[in-house]
UniProtKB/TrEMBL annotation:
Biological-process GO terms, alphabetical: translation
Pfam families: Ribosomal_L32p (PF01783)
Lineage: Bacteria, Bacillati, Actinomycetota, Actinomycetes, Micrococcales
Biased composition (Basic residues): 1-19
Keyword Repeat attached: no
Protein known as: Large ribosomal subunit protein bL32
């Protein structure tokens, strides 16, 4: 494991940490039966019935898992 040779100052530590930024996820807009839904790309989506109960997970039109 790497061990620093000298103690890093508080100012340098905070300056390094301040450069970290969260990125906004790229959402994909889909329209099904007049409903607009946004989802993350390349992830399975939950298929629900009319009452809103989860039935199964679907990816690229295929059932991949039970919910």
């Amino acid at each position: 494991m790497a061990v620093p040779k000298r103690k890093m100052s508080r100012a340098n530590t905070r300056a390094r940490r301040s450069q970290w930024k969260a990125s906004v996820p790229q959402l994909v807009k889909t329209v099904e039966n007049g409903r607009v839904t946004y989802s993350l790309p390349h992830q399975a989506k939950v298929v629900t019935d009319a009452a809103g109960n989860a039935l199964f997970l679907e990816y690229k039109g295929r059932k991949v898992a039970d919910a």
